[in-house]
Amino acid sequence: MIILIMNNLTFFSELNPLLLLKCYNKLMKQKIKHYIKEIIFFLLIMTIFSNILSLYKSQSLNDAPLTLTDVQLITGKPYILSHNKPLLIHFWATWCPTCKLEASNIEFLSHYFEVLTIAVDSKDDATVQKYLATKGYTFAVVNDPHNQLSSHFHVQAFPSTFIYDKHHNLVFSEVGYTSTLGLWMRMLWAGMK
Known about the structure:
This protein starts with a helix and ends with a helix. It has a domain at 71-192: Glutaredoxin. The protein is an alpha/beta fold. It is built from five helices and seven strands, in the order H-E-E-E-H-E-H-E-H-E-E-H. It is elongated and about 75 Å long. Strands 5-4-3-6-7 form a five-stranded mixed sheet. The chain has a two-stranded antiparallel ribbon with strand order 1-2.
């Protein structure tokens, strides 16, 4: 009987780590699946909420055709608006956390589309240029330290994006973060009008 007990203890001591490892792996897989589902659900709810909020906030934006004439960039060069391409006008601020997240999207788009950005409440031209240089951004920027342009467009929250077709009619307006793909698709749509 003692030999039988000893044999069983030996068996369980050899088997136990394997069983424990299998059980642990199974539990971890279940937990990971659960957390992934929770993250996806959270992202879905946040996306729906942010789109509803963006729609609400964008209702107060200026939806008239673009009347903006040529403007001066922070580099001192004039910016002449094209009359045969869609245009993205993006209002942002150096102090805005959401603007910082979206800036790389705007940088990417500026290499393929006509993009004019307007820095609001971001101090003087030198401060904005320093900010752009540290981040490696090269998109065209007009400084709006006294909120003249943002008032004209009725911008009250940042970032705010306006997309115009080649005839300078407003096609889209957004308040808040928009993905690169979302902006790209809107610019393509504006180009077809």
